[in-house]
């Protein structure tokens, strides 16, 4: 079966085949909108039954939980492109903290008073010596570990909990993680400790632009936000097909045939924001084993009692425990029947794990730290594949080679998943799509 791409009719010349965009996450949605604005006929194919990619909500009884960050900023590039989505978001105050190796609640990702000054002159001196040695021993960054030691020194790197957090996030020790990942993920270290920042502390301050308002997804969940995006795309003529699992991409005369669940779509151009390995396999390529992404287990918890910490978001920088972040939705949207409710994220670095076991381990960790001593109930869970690209040494070079091989077939790759890239925000994802499509010709020949 070949899916019709245009209404039947009598025409001397057939309509030009559409551009197919694979993936309905932020990058795919932005690409579809830009292409529609450029006059292209666009078909967006999304394997899930809803838009948003890995940014999604789960409605369980009276609770709405999230996978992925639910925080945005007013006037961001994504919202400038999709103003209807911004209109349904709500302002919020979000405090982000972390549990340190010393079992304290401290500001995320780093606090000079908490992590250094309050620990006394002797600790400051030891940290200064460690930093001085780091500037000598790690002046040629080779890994995320050496990058952090150069800017923080080994002592502060370990004592702040950053070393433990990197291993939990990536599933491998920091010294096995590519240096390029640190440049993207931990550039706040370089900014915080740069000479320009230090000079700014004593330099007279000029009038600064007002900070953007912090926004969160609507109370109904991410589906309501992405419904606004879908409405805008459809108004521009974009065809959106959900549940369209990709199986094969073939180059044929005049373009491509994209095989999906339910049929085949003919395309003049194919742009993929799906995971790089999935797209490569659809093109008949074999991804090297070093290109890996960690799956993520999300636990959905209802809670009665005092949580024991004040923040809306809490990260685990302790050397123990497999969970990495929790989000207290009830502190943003209000309690349900007097109960708090929160999402807890645990990267499955050690392989599959039973949700009940992860929940028991999480609860034991919290109570050991004097937190969440009331009644906690696991009300649901989700598993997200391709949640976090792992950046073991050699993986970035391998991913770049695989991207080249995929794009040699004519398929273009975009986004965090498509380019095996760490992209921290929807704003940055939007900017990167605009840059890449701006360097791409009408026939899809990317300028590299």
Automatic annotation (TrEMBL):
SUPFAM superfamilies: FAD/NAD(P)-binding domain (SSF51905)
Pfam families, per the entry: Amino_oxidase
Coiled coil spans: none
Domain Amine oxidase as annotated: residue spans: 26-292
Name of the featured protein: Protoporphyrinogen oxidase
